[in-house]
Amino acid sequence: MQTIVQQQKRWYEEGHTKSYQFRKDQLLRMKKMIGTFEKPIIEALKFDLNKSEFEAYVSEIAFLKSEIDHHVKHLKQWMNPQKVKAPLTHKGSKNMIYKEPYGTVLVIAPWNYPFQLALAPVLGAIAAGNTVIIKPSELTPTVSWVIKKMVEQYFSPNYIAVVEGDKKVTQELMEQPLDYIFFTGSVPVGRKIMEKASHQLIPVTLELGGKSPAIINKDAAIDLAAKRIVWGKFTNAGQTCIAPDYLLVHHEVKAPLIKAMKKYIHKFYGDRPLENPDYVKIVNDQHFERISSYLNAGTVVSGGSLDEKRQMIEPTILDQVNWSDPVMQDEIFGPILPVLTFDHLSEVITQVNNRPKPLALYYFGESETDQEEIMTSIPFGGGCINDTLYHILNPHLPFGGVGESGMGSYHGQASFDTFTHLKSITKQTTKFDQKFRYPGSSFGLTLIKKVLG
Ligand code: NAD
């Protein structure tokens, strides 16, 4: 690991990664690599998580390709040094912000979208002119192996390297003099990453998780809300960081909402979802046990079947749930959807604000006043009004959490900015020298008070 980091740092210092042409070529090379390896990637996702070709393509491959196109299209403009204005005290000078890469960055990935989440940050790192070490998740070993093979075939390890392994490997990597760490994963591990990074003062982005609510008010378009919630929750069997974790539904529309959600579960996954060849499995035994145990409280009103051997849990709606039940304590990260009710929107605001700031929040309702109230009264990473997950697909919207759901953001220009240090420069004139700043200037204080206040 020491050798990889040293070699990357040397290569970076030699300046190979910095030109516009190089960055653009590498982004296009990434796209070519993904295209060439499309089949093995889809097969690996099937093997590790039972993802269908449709889900694998849409949520992992197509996402990366469109991010690459967006990066290539805007790269030149993002890279350009930015001229800025200056106060009168700076007369004669030019003031610029240079976009400087950090150097050698580490990208640590989780298992739930194991391909997309390992490579999406890398695009930003490449665009910003860094070298990269990727640490894929050990819980999806086939995908991890494919990532290693493809990167080795397309890139020199001096530039992009893949290091496989578990937390020990990550911890060892973090002993190295890295210039930036981009972590996607759970809140408890995020804390450890930040603590460890603090020893060397390595800057971090933390893309974490948490409990993301979907709020359904009585003026919502119920059928459409049900359809979009079922899609957002049960895609990837609920193993999505921004999936609606639980519902807060106005008591007057709870019954029709549940009825409509049942209809869409049936429509999307069939009579027996556990036998649907395209339904995603739970990643491992430990997570299967953890998620299944949530069924011990509340009343199952839809689904509830388990297949322990194949680690599958049916799309499940859980009614009669309390805030104190285990299912409401931690992020569910599985296909179980608890339903709680409310009478007034003010209760919702208090209840959500009493807990850690969510990564996502979804509000369903037609009143623009209520929409605005929710958007401005609850802090959360990002979200949708009258939809779920869709905000993540717009490259013009930075994606990230706040508080316990994370710090920093990426996607589109936010990815470039994340891996870029803004270096502020004043280029002073030598044609004249204003005297007011020097000791002994008779009018210096008067002028400074006038200009700076
Ligand atoms: P995790 O935190 O267990 O692991 C993530 C990565 O960290 C893995 O590569 C793992 O090897 C490494 N790791 C684990 N323990 C470590 C330690 N002690 N020290 C150093 N490295 C360690 O997360 P996970 O189970 O892979 O992913 C699920 C979590 O990730 C959920 O909480 C989910 O919400 C979150 N997530 C967030 C986003 C986002 O974009 N915000 C996206 C996907 C998943």
Describe this structure in words.
- This protein has two domains: 2-208 and 403-424, Aldehyde Dehydrogenase, Chain A, domain 1, CATH 3.40.605; 213-397, Aldehyde Dehydrogenase, Chain A, domain 2 (3-Layer(aba) Sandwich), CATH 3.40.309.
- The model has no long low-confidence stretch (mean pLDDT 96).
- The chain contains 15 helices and 18 strands.
- It is globular and about 80 Å long.
- Helix 4 (53-79) packs parallel to helix 5 and helix 9 (222-234) packs across helix 10 (254-269).
- The protein is 41% helix and 18% strand.
- It is α/β, with parallel strands linked by helices and 453 residues long.
- The chain has a seven-stranded mixed beta sheet with strand order 10-13-14-9-8-15-16. It has a six-stranded mixed beta sheet with strand order 5-4-3-6-7-17, with helices on both faces. A three-stranded antiparallel beta sheet has the order 1-2-18.
- The longest helix is centred in the N-terminal third of the chain and has 27 residues, at 53-79.
- Bound molecules: nicotinamide-adenine-dinucleotide.
- Residues 108-112, 117, 135, 137-138, 166-167, 170-171, 184-186, 189, 192-193, 207-209, 241, 331, 333, 359, 401, 406 line the site of nicotinamide-adenine-dinucleotide.
Key features?
Aldehyde Dehydrogenase, Chain A, domain 1; six-stranded mixed sheet; binds nicotinamide-adenine-dinucleotide; alpha/beta; Aldehyde Dehydrogenase, Chain A, domain 2; seven-stranded mixed sheet; 18 strands; 15 helices; 453 residues
